[in-house]
Amino acid sequence: MFHIGILQLTQNLDDAVKGFKQGLHNAKIEAAFHYMNADGNVEELSKLARALADLKVDLIFACSTPAAKAAKELSENIPVIFTPVFDPMSVKLVSNIEKPGGKVTGMSGMVNAVAKVDFIQLLLPNIQHIAMLYHEKDENSCIEASNFRKAVENKIKLSNIIIQCQEDLSLLEENLPHDIDALFLPIGKIVEENFASIVYYTDSRNIPIIASHAPNVSAGALGALVANHASLGEDCAKQAYKILIEKKSPAEIPVGITTAPEILLNAFVADNLEISLPSTLTEKAKEIFQ
């Protein structure tokens, strides 16, 4: 039996853990799991990673970029599999996507920015001006913001709304451009955790939100194009099989990237905003919230 550490920043990625465990079960890998959750406190992750190392686990499944970084920093040569890290090269988890080159590999949760822009233009065919709200101190948020900025160029006018802390959201009403057709939210902990406050301001202006965090759609966003965390977890289990059973090094296991993002839509929000959801999207949607 293998001993596997599960290192989480929050419970937001429980679906990835479930997918990972299901994938291991499907592969007939017997494992005892040791759970460590920082409850959102990034500073706790190093201590929790150390606790897993002291338990002499055979592998660490790290959910989130900070968790993966904490596991990587351990002096022990314990293999680390991560998800859904947005850009593992930019945050220096791996040196190369095809050949990670260390003790870390995993599945990226990145959805191509061009695909997101295409999704937005299908969802809102008359869109001319979109604002993007992101936290400038969140690595993944800045990476996605940069990618989106390049993808949207010459297609839709873009305004940036940059926040430095949670308190800046109280100024959102005055910072929202008067003529925007939608608000795009890249991934990011502060934005996701304070989504209700953002919706409060956009609802008063009838501005649709395009989210990057799946739970935001049921909570009031018009739609999102997202990676399926459970599927990412299952793919991570396949990588774990190569490490635990086939005795391969993470250094030679390529980082996987989601190739089939899911469409999530909110019909209730669409009705309130008098937006007609196109059949080209509703027919392909993974879920339409009512």
TrEMBL record:
Gene3D superfamilies: 3.40.50.2300
CDD domains named among the record's database cross-references: PBP1_ABC_unchar_transporter
One Pfam entry name: ABC_sub_bind
Domain of life: Bacteria
Protein name, as recorded: ABC transporter substrate-binding protein
Classification lineage: Bacteria, Bacillati, Bacillota, Negativicutes, Selenomonadales
